[in-house]
């Protein structure tokens, strides 16, 4: 049983061990010094409702004791214990990921995705293709996209501009429509631009891997959210004859009628007739989807369904004829307070390209902080060396050798042999691909180095990690000096009890049975049986199949809240208390009234004895610590500090 005050100190005090802030020394303990800034920083993280001066005066001795206990833990080398090191390492991994996400604005990306997901946008699109690596082709596509955008800004109809520039027949046939989109429907680079402009306008040209892209935002609507449906698909070939299409339609209509009249369940129909191989064995159930994920005609029919269980009429898409059954409508996120939606967006974001984009941008900023230094290496010679080292192992006479320095990050140097090892693991690629791979290698090396040495570059991170380490060490020290001693020294506990029996007195109460039932029906049933056979209470509880939990003991009045103002009359039950959290019901049966004043036995008082004895041990330990690490206050600094508040 941990002393409450000590636990509070561990949770509340936040400071960096062995680190002396710049400024005047407030106090020393042993050979260590604590500045007034360090003390104030810890104090300000523990706000008080009372007068500041009084709060500081109360906090100072707690803070001093904390520092002494942690210093003891370091001197005893408790930080070298495997458990301590493992817990610190695991926490560092979690903290690193959280810190990088926070610094790379991942939270802002989640907020942005939340805003986007609250509105759907109807999009049209023109692609201006170019041949990758062909500068002339790329320049032409760029110029055409700029000219097309200017025309659209001048109110030239989209269809006219589309016909002038678009070369894909299918896109022309669809009028350039991409249908409705929402967050995550398109790659982030496109989504961000589309949602940055108002409806009725066009985006700036966006460069892709083989084309420039223009997006026209036709209109916007409140987001429809997501749907979960089951489907029956009757597949038909695109080149099916009129007679074949008619036969498929008649079959779909017949299935639909059977479903409507309840002569066939949807699950049975899917198993018997659906050609969708991924869903027919599970009743036709499809994964949850939002707008922009399926064929526009399919989505239109799915989102037109409003009530679970509702069926669509048979409708046609390029895949054949479909019949849908709505299973669930999932509303669009309502805002930042929609915890479930925000969590889903976080998970979605971390599985897409946008989290990586944010991290890469952040990494570029920390590369400067880590002093990334690239050597002036002839890259063609490096590629030749790499090819030769990987393919035949011969690099004799080449200007680049294994020991050639490529770049440095912080105190770490990367040699050509490290680059070769990376390529062997990554797999052989054409020589032309080395340039892009080299940039990725530098980023990966920088990322790994930053993660391993993040505390050197981020003071906030280092401080938070140190806080965790010190708090863990405090618990380890308390466990060693107080908690385990108090719990395991039975002889000392018995002696303490014998010397302090008068402290452990029973207050007025009752010998009673406390009953907790899983629901109202179980509570009523057990109470009825109990009143008939009170001596058989244990067997009655066991017969009710874990619906009843009982605790038979002597209780004080304060432990029986349902009978706080009641007379403890033997053979009676209290009223039932309902717990709305789990729908359980609790009541009490009285065996006998118990007057106060009796001394508790050692076993009855043991919990209190352990807690009290912990305090004795802690005070003895603190007395020893103050002798080991004498505390000397700088009274002038302390008085000045108090007067400034």
Protein topology:
Elements: H1 4-12, E1 25-29, E2 32-35, H2 36-44, H3 52-75, H4 82-103, H5 106-116, E3 119-129, H6 135-153, H7 158-165, H8 169-173, E4 177-181, H9 188-194, E5 206-207, E6 211-222, E7 226-235, H10 242-260, H11 266-273, E8 289-290, H12 296-304, E9 315-317, E10 320-330, H13 339-350, H14 353-369, E11 373-374, H15 379-391, E12 405-409, E13 412-415, H16 416-426, H17 434-452, H18 454-457, H19 459-488, H20 490-499, E14 509-517, H21 520-532, H22 537-542, E15 548-556, E16 577-579, E17 584-594, H23 602-628, E18 631-633, H24 635-643
Antiparallel strand pairs: 1-2, 1-18, 3-4, 3-6, 5-6, 7-8, 7-10, 9-10, 11-12, 12-13, 14-15, 14-17, 16-17
Helix pairs in contact: 3-19, 4-19, 5-13, 14-17, 15-16, 19-23, 20-23
Written description of the protein model:
The protein has 645 residues and is an alpha+beta fold. Among the domains are: 104 residues, Chitinase A, domain 3; 105 residues, Chitinase A, domain 3 (Roll); 82 residues, no CATH class; 93 residues, Roll (Chitinase A, domain 3). It has a 4-stranded antiparallel sheet, sandwiched between helices. A hairpin with a 2-residue loop joins β12 and β13. α4 runs antiparallel to α19 and α19 packs across α23. The N terminus is likely disordered.
Brief description of this entry?
The model is unreliable at 1-22 (pLDDT under 50).
């Amino acid at each position: 049983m941990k002393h409450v005050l000590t636990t509070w100190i561990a949770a509340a005090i936040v400071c960096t061990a062995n680190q002396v802030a710049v400024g005047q020394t407030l106090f020393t303990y042993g050979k260590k010094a604590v500045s007034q800034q360090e003390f104030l920083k810890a104090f300000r993280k523990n706000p008080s409702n009372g007068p500041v001066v009084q709060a500081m005066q109360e906090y100072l001795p707690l803070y001093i004791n904390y520092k002494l206990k942690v210093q003891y833990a370091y001197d005893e080398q408790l930080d070298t214990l495997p458990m301590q090191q493992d817990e610190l390492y695991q926490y560092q991994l979690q903290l690193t990921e959280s810190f990088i996400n926070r610094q790379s604005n991942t939270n802002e990306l989640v907020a942005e995705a939340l805003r986007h997901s609250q509105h759907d946008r109807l999009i049209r699109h023109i692609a201006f293709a170019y041949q990758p690596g062909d500068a002339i082709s790329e320049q032409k596509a760029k110029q055409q996209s700029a000219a097309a955008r200017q025309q659209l800004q001048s109110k030239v109809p989209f269809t006219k501009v589309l016909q002038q520039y678009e070369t894909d027949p299918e896109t022309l046939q669809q009028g350039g429509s991409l249908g409705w989109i929402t967050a995550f429907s398109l790659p982030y680079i496109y989504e961000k631009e589309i949602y940055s402009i108002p409806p009725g306008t066009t985006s700036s040209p966006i460069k892709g891997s083989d084309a420039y892209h223009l997006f026209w935002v036709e209109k916007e609507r409140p987001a429809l959210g997501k749907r979960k449906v089951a489907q029956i698909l009757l597949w038909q070939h695109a080149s099916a004859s009129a007679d074949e299409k008619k036969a498929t339609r008649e079959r779909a209509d017949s299935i639909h009628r059977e479903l409507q009249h309840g002569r066939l369940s949807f699950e049975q129909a899917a198993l018997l007739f659906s050609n969708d191989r991924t869903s027919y064995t599970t009743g036709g159930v499809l994964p949850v989807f939002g707008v922009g994920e399926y064929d526009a005609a399919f989505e239109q029919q799915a989102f037109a369904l409003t009530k679970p269980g509702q069926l669509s009429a048979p409708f046609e898409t390029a895949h054949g004829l479909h019949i849908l059954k709505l299973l669930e409508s999932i509303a669009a996120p309502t805002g930042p307070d929609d915890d479930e939606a925000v969590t889903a967006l976080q998970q979605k974001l971390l599985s897409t390209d946008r989290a990586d984009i944010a991290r890469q941008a952040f990494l570029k900023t920390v590369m400067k902080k880590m002093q990334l230094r690239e050597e002036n290496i002839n890259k063609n010679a490096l590629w030749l060396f790499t090819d030769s080292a990987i393919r035949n192992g011969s690099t004799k006479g080449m200007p680049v050798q294994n020991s050639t320095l490529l770049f440095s990050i912080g105190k770490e140097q990367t040699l050509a042999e490290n680059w070769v090892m990376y390529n062997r693991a990554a797999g052989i690629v054409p020589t032309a691909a080395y340039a892009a791979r080299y940039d990725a290698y530098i980023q990966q090396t920088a990322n790994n180095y930053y993660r391993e040495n993040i505390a050197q570059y981020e003071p906030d991170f280092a401080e938070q990690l140190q806080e965790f380490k010190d708090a863990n060490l405090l618990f380890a020290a308390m466990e060693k000096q107080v908690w385990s001693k108090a719990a395991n020294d039975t002889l000392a506990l018995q002696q303490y009890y014998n010397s302090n029996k008068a402290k452990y007195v029973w207050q007025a109460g009752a010998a009673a049975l406390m009953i907790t039932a899983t629901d109202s029906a179980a509570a009523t049933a057990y109470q009825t049986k109990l009143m008939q056979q009170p001596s058989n209470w244990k067997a009655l509880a066991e017969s009710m199949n874990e619906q009843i939990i009982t605790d038979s003991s002597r209780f004080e009045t304060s432990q029986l809240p349902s009978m706080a103002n009641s007379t403890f009359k033997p053979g009676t039950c209290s009223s039932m208390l309902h717990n709305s959290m789990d729908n359980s019901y609790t009541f009490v049966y009285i065996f006998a009234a118990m007057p106060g004043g009796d001394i508790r036995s050692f076993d009855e008082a043991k919990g209190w004895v352990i807690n009290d004895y912990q305090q004795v041990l802690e005070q003895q330990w603190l007395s020893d610590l103050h002798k080991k690490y004498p505390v000397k206050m700088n009274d002038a600094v302390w008085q000045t500090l108090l007067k400034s508040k």
